[in-house]
């Protein structure tokens, strides 16, 4: 077939064969599916996908038929499609096709900096890094609102990796437990949004790899400066780069479930290039400088502002975080 | 003479005293313009049309930016 014939045939078959199948599936769902969360419902069933495939020569084409369900292979609908194409079909079984799952939102063992994590009741945030307590215990560092559910968590509560939003469940994805946190204050300025989780015995942790960057080089002791290039690895936007636009930022008002909270002495960062530095789900990300030394812990942001108009990210200075929790960075 | 960090910090404290309560301030910090330190004033919303914000405080420049609402960043959809 020439290209125009295949396109015309495809369009005709989509209308006469595929669309009726989709409508039929939608009716069945509306009438017969018992009550369950709306996200579990789908108006489509897997059938076939149609397209254009190369034929025997450069100007010859076939109808591409991609079968997504074994049950469709001998169906009358597929037989009608084959007949309409007079057998000039490139037919393949492709099975169920899944959306692309970002690797940092999946189960990671050993535990990885930048991966999805959270208190079992929250959606998901980011595993910032690993720290050591004074007695030598290993802990996961992230935000209070990620590991301690904004002060509502209790010591010993399960922490899951990946977080609930990414399919993590108890007990199979429990990697540790809430240890301690800096309480978020409603009536006084906060300096950090930070918490620690223990790591369950037998669960390994990769304490140094910054996915897409290199090995973590410890905590920076140098002063921040405006224009400084920084990077982070986060559950939602992965590895991104940005630059510091302000520091010693006081009276920053951030919306939480428990109310609007004030933060002092914060760091402001904008995304480099055309994208944002962070989005929802990146909370808890460790922010590093160009030598991959930790400089801050990401906890909030907005969609307005910044040179590229993609919003600003707010972060706690890492020194204040480590001091408040009385821990040191593990590398 | 370039504005140093201590002078910018002092201007930041002074600016806080000067700002009207009606202004929706969402952060006041330190930034840099070339060699000079400056004060960064973040606003949750644009100020009313009749409100003039000072371009400098004690000789330190003030950079104003409307940053909107800020929120924690867990996964949300």
Folded structure, characterized:
The complex is a heterodimer of chains A (331) and B (77). With 331 residues, chain A is α+β, with helices and mostly antiparallel strands. Chain A has four helices and 23 strands. In chain A, strand 1 and strand 2 (61-67) form a beta hairpin. Helix content of chain B is 18%, strand content 38%. Chain B has one helix at 5-18, and strands spanning 25-33, 36-43, 56-57, 60-66, 70-72. Chain B is globular and about 50 Å long. The chains are: A alpha+beta (331), B alpha+beta (77). The interface between A and B is large, with 50 and 27 residues. Strand 21 (294-301) of chain A pairs antiparallel with strand 5 (70-72) of chain B, so a sheet runs across the interface.
Features:
heterodimer, A: 331 residues, alpha+beta, Thrombin, subunit H, eight-stranded antiparallel beta sheet, six-stranded antiparallel β-barrel, elongated, B: 77 residues, four-stranded mixed beta sheet, 5 strands, 38% strand
Structural class of chain B: alpha+beta
Shape of chain A: elongated
Query: How far apart, in Å, are the first and last alpha carbons of chain B?
Result: 50 Å
- Strand portion of chain B, in percent? 35-45%
H-E string of chain B: HEEEEE
Oligomer: heterodimer
Radius of gyration of chain B: 14 Å
Tell me briefly what this model is.
The complex is a heterodimer of chains A (331) and B (77). With 331 residues, chain A is an alpha+beta fold.
Question: How are the elements arranged and paired?
Answer:
The complex is a heterodimer of chains A (331) and B (77).
Chain A: H1 3-32, E1 48-54, E2 61-67, H2 76-84, E3 89-93, E4 111-112, E5 116-119, E6 125-126, E7 129-133, E8 138-142, H3 144-147, E9 158-160, E10 174-181, E11 195-198, E12 205-206, E13 209-210, E14 214-215, E15 229-234, E16 238-250, E17 252-256, E18 259-263, E19 266-271, E20 286-288, E21 294-301, E22 312-317, H4 318-325, E23 327-329
Parallel strand pairs in A: 2-3, 4-12
Antiparallel strand pairs in A: 1-2, 5-6, 5-9, 7-8, 7-23, 8-11, 9-10, 10-11, 13-14, 15-16, 15-20, 16-19, 17-18, 19-22, 20-21, 21-22
Chain B: H1 5-18, E1 25-33, E2 36-43, E3 56-57, E4 60-66, E5 70-72
Parallel strand pairs in B: 2-4
Antiparallel strand pairs in B: 1-2, 3-4
